[in-house]
Structure formats: C-alpha cells, structure tokens
Design the sequence.
C-alpha cells in the first residue's frame, strides 16, 4: 500500500512520527502535514491565498515528508489532487495529542484530515491519544494503529465512511481491548478571557479547562476511554437526521407556495 499520513498538531509533533513509523510494515509511507500546530482548525480549506508545500526533515527513516502552510484538510487535499504522483491507498491522521470524542469531531483538524480523504473516496482513519500532556507516550497508540490497519481497512470501509479511534492514556498491557461505540456527549468548560492591549482596546482569549462529558453512558466513546478501552466509531459524511424528515414534513412546509401578497400560502 501507499499510505498518506497527516495530522493537526504539526509535522514536528511526536504523534505523527509514531504513526508514520507504525505504518511502515504495510508499504510506502508519505507524510503531508501542516508546518505548525493547527489544532481545532476544523474542516477549513484554503481558497483565497496560495499554499506552500516544502520538503521537510522527518525523524523516521524511509518516510518522505512535506510541510504545508495551512490546514490538515489542505494537506490531504493537495496530496490527493496530484502533488503526490503515486496513488494513495489509505489516509491515516494523528496520532493526536488529546482525545477527539463526542462533538470534538466538529472542531478537530485530525478528524477533518480524514474527512477530506473520504470526500476524495479514499479510506481514512483518525487516531487520537486521550493524553494532553506534552510528554505523552505514543507507544501503545502506535501499536493500536498498526493492529487496526493490519485488518485490511481499505477493502472493508464503505464509501464516505471513516473510523475515529481514541486510545486511553495507558501502557499497552493495561488497555482492556477494543469497543465499537457511538459518539458520546461532551461538556465544554470554556471561559471568555478579556484583556486590554497597550492602546486600551479589548482583546479576547477562549480559555478554560479541558472538556469533560458523560462517562456513564455505556457504549459511547467517552465511556470506553474512561474504562480503559480503545474506542472505535464509524463516522459517515451523510449527516442527515433521517428520523426528523417525516416530522418536519408534517409541519406543512412542502405544501406552501409564494402568494401574490409576498407571503407563502397553501
């Protein structure tokens, strides 16, 4: 296989080196990732300024690496749109410093790199380690990534579907196993911090402590990580709430047409 590795912590992050090294047994590994930290950048694509792509030094022997000037989504897009001449078989993103569970997926650059891959019909997996410390140990997370990819993921994943995988911050021998789960419910503890610049104008930081959430609801990603399991959540890009289609139809909106008085009428 030819495996593309990206992330949102930046090309110099230890997690991406651990993930790239874990992929080497499966074939050719190429890294295309942001040149600096792009955490919580979401699925943002650069449209109104040029992108720079430069060869980058990388600590894993046998891995070709490139740094891009903007987001994880950009990194994957340019790689798949022709910057890489060899076709890519699988995209893996991470290993992120910190979990991506529940509503985190709407913010996560790590998961957005995988989103971008499946938009271009490439199978993709996002890996995150539930450890926010700067000296996190990625050994167990890399072993998890290697195990998951060994299951022939390119053949098994359906179109427009990615796997979002979170690993508990435990040594490999203490991880209880794998749980296939749905998204849990995050609780964010953000604070708006207001300060003044030297010219007397206010500026703002969004601060606060790390997100928490409901760890008691079984078979969610939050519950699995809290109980020492690797969480695996299949994510589909069709975000339609199908259960609401019939209910909204009962509201009668589809029976209305514009009237002569400027109002909608049945």
Sequence:
């Amino acid at each position: 296989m030819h495996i593309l590795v990206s992330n949102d912590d930046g090309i110099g992050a230890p997690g991406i080196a651990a993930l790239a090294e874990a992929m080497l047994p499966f074939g050719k590994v190429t890294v295309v990732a942001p040149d600096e930290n792009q955490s919580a950048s979401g699925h943002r694509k650069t449209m109104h300024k040029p992108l720079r792509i430069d060869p980058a030094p990388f600590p894993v022997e046998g891995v070709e690496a490139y740094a891009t000037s903007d987001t994880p989504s950009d990194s994957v897009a340019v790689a798949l749109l022709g910057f890489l001449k060899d076709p890519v078989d699988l995209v893996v993103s991470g290993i992120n410093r910190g979990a991506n569970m529940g509503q985190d997926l709407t913010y996560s650059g790590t998961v957005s790199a995988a989103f971008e891959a499946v938009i271009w019909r490439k199978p993709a997996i996002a890996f995150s380690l539930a450890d926010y410390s700067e000296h996190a140990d990625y050994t167990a997370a890399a072993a998890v990534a290697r195990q998951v990819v060994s299951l022939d993921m390119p053949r098994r994943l359906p179109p427009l579907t990615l796997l979002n995988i979170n690993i508990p911050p435990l040594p490999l021998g203490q991880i209880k196993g794998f749980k296939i789960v749905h998204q849990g419910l995050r609780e964010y503890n953000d604070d708006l911090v207001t300060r003044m610049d030297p010219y007397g104008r206010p500026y703002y930081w969004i601060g606060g402590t790390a997100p928490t959430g409901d760890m008691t609801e079984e078979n969610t990603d939050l519950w699995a990580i809290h109980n020492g399991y690797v969480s695996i959540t299949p994510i589909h890009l069709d975000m339609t709430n199908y259960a609401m289609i019939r209910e909204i139809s009962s509201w009668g909106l589809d029976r209305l047409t514009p009237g002569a008085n400027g109002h909608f009428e049945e």
The CA atoms of residues 77 and 83 lie 9 Å apart. The radius of gyration is 21 Å. The first helix runs from residue 14 to 23.
